[in-house]
Write a structure and sequence with these properties.
This protein is an all-alpha fold and about 300 residues long. The chain is built from 15 helices and no strands. Helix content is about 75%, strand content about 0%. Helix 7 packs antiparallel against helix 11, helix 7 packs across helix 15 and helix 9 packs antiparallel against helix 12. The two termini are about 30 Å apart.
């Protein structure tokens, strides 16, 4: 018994590219429909939604639309689509890397510390990215996006609700799509390292923030490598959740620092970047050694 994808001769890269476009537009369209319907049912004028201020008048509706689109399209539709790439339903979880994390909790702790350690480098790359000669309309669009994000985070939405929408839902749904489905499909046609890099690059560009594309790509490649190396999408889910969640908590705890425009346009000090690089390399070696040691242990029954 062979999978539908194999019977019909569809290469993995083609399945990945087609679903990337389908997931992106399907998610956006569904989220927009939910917002439009909810806004009209609340007595609002749909035509006014072209104004960002009108959109922000009901932030809960925005989050509901975004999260529903992610769950139904990025998450559940990807889960359904994976059935076309395996011979039996029982193989689908393994295809999407729904497996225990190799090395257990220590692997997860080291992975989280690794992503925290690289943050000064990410900040420096973000600063450098902002100074690339990008078209002004791209910079203006990013400023509008950041202004909307700041207004949402400074709003009256409770922290647990914000963590659910901004950290938990993307951590699960985006990882099922990228580190589950897309990475596995690319691995069918190329070596693992090429698949890891390509998946990470696409993940960074998927967010449509060209002003921050470089740090998003670097972070995307790192998270993809963690999922591949630990054999589990759950590593990526945990790291993704902690990364997003830490930003949300910081925005609540120290908003004046997090949204300080002067700080955002200033490069982190060289010593912080150097410490970040050193800590990242050290934790990388620790994680690699731990995983190697775990692989060498005899299986227990």
């Amino acid at each position: 018994m062979t999978a539908w994808q194999d019977r019909n001769g569809f290469p993995g890269w083609l399945m990945a590219v087609v679903w990337l476009f389908g997931a992106f537009f399907g998610f956006q369209i569904l989220a927009a429909i939910i917002v439009f319907v909810g806004f009209s049912m609340g007595g609002g004028d749909i035509l006014s939604l072209t104004d960002p201020a009108a959109l922000l008048s009901d932030p809960n509706l925005l989050f509901i639309g975004n999260s529903t689109g992610q769950v139904l399209v990025l998450g559940l539709m990807t889960w359904w689509l994976a059935r076309l790439s395996v011979a039996t339903k029982a193989e689908r979880p393994a295809f999407l890397r729904f497996a225990p994390v190799q090395g257990g909790n220590k692997t997860l702790v080291l992975s989280v510390l690794l992503v925290f350690a690289i943050q000064p480098v990410i900040l420096y790359l973000g600063w450098a990215n902002q100074h690339l000669p990008l078209p002004q309309w791209i910079k203006d669009l990013d400023e509008q996006q950041m202004a909307m994000i700041e207004q949402l985070l400074r709003g009256d939405i409770a922290l647990p609700v914000m963590l659910f929408h901004v950290a938990l839902v993307p951590a699960i749904c985006e990882e099922v799509l990228f580190r589950g489905y897309i990475l596995r499909q690319f691995e069918k046609n190329m070596g693992p390292m090429a698949a890891v890099i390509l998946t990470g690059v696409i993940f960074g560009l998927f967010h449509l923030r060209l002003v921050q594309a470089i740090p998003l790509i670097v972070l995307g490649v790192l998270i993809t490598w963690l999922a591949w190396r630990t054999g589990s999408v759950w590593t990526a889910v945990v790291v993704h959740f902690v990364n997003n969640g830490a930003s949300v908590v910081a925005a609540y705890a120290i908003p004046d620092i997090m949204f300080d425009e002067k700080l955002q346009n200033t490069a982190p000090p060289w010593w912080a970047v150097a410490i970040g690089l050193g800590a990242t390399y050290y934790l990388f070696l620790l994680l690699r050694g731990h995983l190697h040691e775990h692989a060498q242990r005899p299986a227990t029954h």
